[in-house]
Write a structure and sequence with these properties.
The chain has two domains: 101 residues, no CATH class; 99 residues, Rossmann fold. The chain is 22% helix and 19% strand. It contains five helices and eight strands; from the N terminus they run ββββαβαβααβαβ. Strand 5, helix 2 and strand 6 form a beta-alpha-beta unit. Helix 1 packs across helix 2. The protein is globular, with a radius of gyration of 20 Å. The two termini are 17 Å apart. The structure holds NADP nicotinamide-adenine-dinucleotide phosphate. One of its GO terms (molecular function) is 2-alkenal reductase [NAD(P)H] activity. It comes from Cynara cardunculus var. scolymus (Globe artichoke). This is Alcohol dehydrogenase superfamily, zinc-type.
């Protein structure tokens, strides 16, 4: 993962800062022993770019929980290839898989996160009663209620189903149309935290697992 390189007109060699995996982190959170920052020199000479590849400059980095599964050293972890589209994940969960009836109760965990903030708003637009849980009061859930008795979900015949949003890409056009309309009408409001500089990646990544992030976490590495 790299960024922050500036392309100077007079040269085709740029310096790029990148985080690299120095050691796999099979358990717990990665530390500075696992993820390290370095500066590399990248040549943009035409001959140095392999066939069918391209050189590009990163402007924004999306910081997502799925990245954790990439550094465990296990190949059989769930690969969340579409983690960069939290709105789409929420839309598939609420509109396609869950599809709750108006008036029904919808519970959203990590409700202030990248996926949760969209899922809660989409369920409200469907006329549902939404209860979200967050790791702290500062994340300001609309209603502070939790599941008081997990056994209640048996009597209510709650359905649990896993999904990967990448399996629903055939619905992406429909999602884009609906979401664009909701956003233009102010019915769905995204929340972002945009930090500056590739150096802040580690701190922002760890924040996903320590309850200190709110909304979608993004890092701006160039403008
Ligand atoms: N299936 C798919 O296709 C798909 C696609 C995208 C994302 N996802 C998954 O959806 C989840 C949310 O993604 P996101 O981008 O919206 O992340 P996020 O909510 O922005 O960040 C993670 C949040 O999870 C909560 N959390 C952290 N550790 C936890 C723990 N041990 N137990 C319970 N909650 C914990 C924290 O919220 P609180 O402080 O509020 O507890 C944290 O802010 C992730 O698991 C991600 O991998 C799945």
């Amino acid at each position: 993962m790299g960024g922050g390189g500036g392309v100077a007109a007079a040269t085709t060699v740029v310096e790029s800062r990148e985080w690299y995996l120095a050691a796999i982190a099979p358990e717990n959170l990665p530390t500075s022993d696992h993820l390290k920052l370095r500066t590399v020199t990248v040549s943009l000479d035409y001959e140095s770019i392999p066939d069918e590849q391209m050189a590009l400059q990163l402007l924004l980095i999306s910081v997502d929980p799925y990245l954790r599964s990439r550094i465990t050293g296990r190949d059989n972890g769930i690969r969340d290839r579409e983690g960069r589209v939290p709105g789409f994940t929420a839309w598939v969960g609420i509109k396609v898989i869950g599809n709750p009836d108006p008036g029904s109760n919808v519970f959203i965990s990590a409700a202030a996160g990248g996926v949760g903030m969209f899922a809660g708003q989409l369920a409200k637009l469907k006329g549902c009663r939404v209860v979200g849980s967050t790791g702290s009061d500062e994340k300001n859930p609309a209603e502070r209620e939790g599941l008081k008795n997990l056994l209640n979900i048996v009597g209510k015949e709650v359905k649990m189903e896993g999904f990967l949003c990448g399996s629903f890409l055939n619905r992406f056009g429909e999602f884009s149309q609906q979401m664009e309309k909701y956003m233009k009408e102010g019915k769905i409001k995204p929340k972002h935290k945009i930090d500056q500089g590739i150096e802040s990646f580690f701190e922002n990544f760890v924040s996903l697992f320590s309850s200190s992030n709110v909304g979608k976490v993004i890092i701006q590495v160039a403008s």
